[in-house]
Amino acid sequence: MHSAINYKLRCATCQGGGRVTVTEEDRTYQRARTREQKNQRLDGILDATRSILDEGSYHDVTLSAIAERVGCSRANLSHYVGSKEEILLLLYIRSLREILEAMKGIDPGSLDVSSITGLEAASDALAAMLASHRDFGRLGALLTSIIETNVRLECLVECKREIIGMMADGSSLLVERGLFDELADSTRFLMDLSDYVAGLYPATHPLPIQRAACKETGYPILSYEESLRDFLTVQLVGYKVLKEKRDDS
User: Is the same domain home to 117 and 227?
Assistant: First the structure.
């Protein structure tokens, strides 16, 4: 079990206080007692939150809406999470975990990094994979300005530690796959990618009023996946050129 989820389970007893009206629905929901069952419940909360996001937007995500989707009261939900932002933070962590697993599945033999064409192909594969994990972009766009401002320090620290660990694993994996020769370059690449996606996702997924204004004025709306591909290509080619220059100096 991952540390961020373990943290949530350890801190479940810290949520709220006072007397709570227990419904029949709550009694059914509270039957989870083992660590595995509790982990499954938290996964269900994250799944419900993701489905609400898929159907609407961040503003549609409320503790009441999540509780209704899961099938429990809001008070019972508080045994697992402290705020909707903590749920979104855990959902973001889960998306990073899924991306890391997807990266592990990339066939090293399919990556030819000896040429620009090969690097472009690698960028295509990475862009398609990243675009398929929507939470990386849509929650990354809210991470520093909204999500991380309404969570407890202990939760944020635990999640940051897990991000650092996944960043290290991802950096090592990119070196193993031959995309980078140095861990420092690979790590910087992943950090720049996260920052770029945080700004790119909202620009390529405008709200209805923004989309209407773009249509009326002819303002371009870029493709998320194509923009990712172009960014990745420029970055990979740029690091390759920099390495060659360092080797020649």
Answer: yes
